[in-house]
Design goal:
With about 500 residues, the chain is of the alpha/beta class. The chain has helices spanning about 25-35, 85-100, 105-120, 140-150, 165-180, 200-210, 235-255, 265-275, 320-330, 345-355, 395-400, 415, 430-440, 445-460, 465-480, 500-505, and strands at about 10-15, 40-45, 65-70, 190-195, 215-220, 260-265, 305-310, 335-340, 365, 380-385, 405-410, 420-425. The strands form 2 sheets. Strands 3-2-1-4-5-6 form a 6-stranded parallel sheet. It has a 6-stranded parallel sheet with strand order 9-8-7-10-11-12, sandwiched between helices. Helix 2 (about 85-100) packs parallel to helix 4, helix 9 (about 320-330) packs parallel to helix 10 and helix 11 (about 395-400) crosses helix 14. The relative contact order is 0.10.
């Protein structure tokens, strides 16, 4: 290990995770930073929440800085002054909205051009509460006009859109304008930006790329654009449609601008291809955990126990777990459910849900253990019920811990678990309960599955593999450009340099 960081500086850009939150994605970022100590990291998180007061993880010596920036609120009134800047803003808004509502590739590409022009209007600033040029974007009127045009084109075979009222358009415009405040967040001076998922940090990464030409590496860790966030249930169908299309369009723009995209699984790989990513820019890097942190302790005897790990938030899968466990508690008297990783922000909400189910003392709440090896050791069976956009890190942790897993078949769960656990269809708590009860009653089978799961994790999902691949990607993308060279037109061509490692991975050429 090189004790001195190299001159390559990497901006690790997240949406509220590492180093401020101890969640699955934060743990993955931590192992990446600590495993690649030859690089110097500048950590930046851009979030809609209140910025944390201090990092949740100790920062290693190769971290140069760590900043958290919360996006400010929109002003009550938009600036209606006319002029050259207002005309530019109107043209950018037109491109943005037309691309947002289009389905054909030439039309959707307009969104990226509109976003690029809006970036030019937004000078970088640390004060995310400033209204700035975003307030002059006529998004409400432009969105309504593009919506009417899309409705008129519905007769050409395009799917119909829900109704969008003036009030809906105003609400959608406010939310989009707020999200685009991320475009004004300045990036540190680095050789490479590594953006780890999420619409908000990706907007910041795109703006930095357009301003400075800095290379962008995009880790596709979650597919947030397909889901409806819990806080948006109150919104009208029209507003929800606009927000989903906005996130999808940002993702497509990210795929177009990124030098490389590193999906976590075949599922994420397919999602990226479906949304416009070029196959030659995709390098699949599976999730990985450190086997030393999950040594595979023997399961506890006596009381039948089930473990679920998650934050406990409204979009975390907890409701399905509690509903299933009400049936487990009837079939296996005395069974206990351990909820591990419940955050302080969601502890009260979890307690209310437990009280409504009547499970009472059959459920134990745990904050995330300081020692990862204690995360799953209290259980005999792990119920893996993720949120709709959660990456598969918790599943890999449970497998590495040597526990039998009952997983809901969402996203990459099936390909990650393979035949070393049980899969049940999503949205069916009764099927989940049946599978859990079967394993609680079959000690030999669940131990065999646990051993097989650990072996599969050791073979395919270790962190050393992740660190090795990302180290090579960083070296290829963050390396300084070659010195200018002049080639003479000779009869015998001059020899070429060896193909870079990343390019070899991305082609079918055998090496």
């Amino acid at each position: 290990m090189n004790p001195t960081p190299s001159r390559e500086r990497i901006c690790l850009l997240t949406g509220g995770g590492y180093p401020y939150r101890r969640d699955a994605l934060g743990g993955w970022c931590r192992t990446l930073v600590e495993g690649l100590r030859r690089f110097r990291f500048e950590l930046l998180t851009v979030t809609d929440r209140e910025p944390p007061s201090a990092p949740a993880y100790p920062l290693p010596f190769n971290v140069g800085s760590a900043r958290a920036i919360a996006l400010g609120r929109d002003p009550a009134r938009a600036d209606r002054r006319r002029g050259a800047a207002a005309d530019d803003a109107a043209e950018a808004a037109t491109l943005l909205c037309r691309g947002l509502l289009g389905d054909a590739a030439p039309i959707t590409a307009l969104f990226g051009e509109g976003l690029r022009r809006i970036t030019r209007l937004c000078p970088p600033t640390e004060d995310s509460g400033r209204a700035g040029p975003l307030s002059s974007l006529p998004l409400t009127e432009t969105l309504l006009e593009a919506w009417r045009q899309r409705q008129a084109d519905a007769s050409d075979g395009q799917p119909p859109m829900p109704r969008l009222s003036v009030r809906d358009a105003r609400t959608a415009a406010t939310l989009i304008r707020h999200a685009m405040r991320a475009l004004a967040v300045p990036l540190p001076e680095v050789e490479l930006v590594h953006c780890v998922g999420g619409t908000t940090p990706l907007l910041t990464a795109l703006a930095g790329r357009w301003r400075t030409g800095i290379p962008l590496l995009l880790t596709e860790a979650r597919t947030a654009v397909v889901r409806q966030r819990p806080a948006e249930e109150r919104l009208s169908p029209g507003v929800r449609t606009v927000l989903r299309r906005f996130r999808t369009s940002v993702a497509r723009t990210g795929y177009a601008e990124a030098a490389l995209i590193a999906p976590l699984s075949t599922y994420h790989h397919g999602w990226a291809l479906e949304h416009g990513a070029q196959p030659t820019r995709l390098v699949q890097v599976p999730a990985g955990v450190d086997p030393r942190e999950y040594p595979g302790a023997a399961e506890p005897g006596g009381t039948p126990t089930v473990v679920w790990a998650g934050s406990g938030g409204p979009d975390s899968g907890l409701s399905c777990v509690l509903e299933a466990f009400t049936e487990v508690a009837v079939a296996v008297p005395g069974a206990v459910l351990h909820l591990v990783g419940i955050t302080a922000a969601h502890e009260e909400q979890c307690a209310e849900q437990i009280e409504r189910t009547g499970l009472g003392r059959a459920v134990r709440l745990h904050h995330l253990p300081a020692d990862p090896r204690d995360r799953y050791t209290v259980g005999q069976v792990v119920a893996h019920v993720p949120g709709p956009a959660d990456p598969p890190y918790r599943l890999v942790e449970a497998m590495m811990s040597g526990r039998a897993v009952v997983g809901v078949d969402i996203g990459p769960a099936g390909e990650t678990l393979g035949d070393t656990g049980l899969l049940v269809p999503p949205g069916d708590p009764s099927e989940l309960a049946i599978a859990i009860v079967g394993l609680l009653r079959s000690p030999g089978r669940r131990r065999a599955l646990g051993e097989a799961a650990r072996q599969r994790a050791l073979t395919h999902f270790t962190v050393d593999r992740v660190v090795r691949v990302y180290g090579a990607l960083y070296s290829d993308l963050a390396a300084p450009p070659p010195a200018p060279a002049f080639e003479l037109a000779l009869t015998v061509p001059a020899p070429r340099i060896t193909t870079p490692a990343t390019v070899r991975w991305l082609t079918r050429e055998k090496v």
